[in-house]
Design a protein that fits this description.
single chain, 60 residues
Length: 60
């Protein structure tokens, strides 16, 4: 899987979890570049990354 495909899957997972539009989810994902880079580097899947981003966005 290429990065852009994985990033799209992360964005969709965030959108599904929060029941928001894909564009809103994209803003949430883009606000967490550290977690995106870290997760990609560790080979984490989209759902694991989305969970990490959601936890960070909620201040956990």
């Amino acid at each position: 899987m290429k990065y852009f495909e994985w990033e799209g899957a992360v964005t969709q997972a965030v959108a599904d979890a929060l029941q928001v539009s894909r564009s809103d989810a994209s803003g949430i994902v883009e606000a967490q570049p550290f977690y995106m880079q870290q997760s990609w580097g560790k080979g984490m899947d989209a759902l694991q990354t989305a969970a990490k981003i959601l936890a960070a966005a909620q201040g956990e």
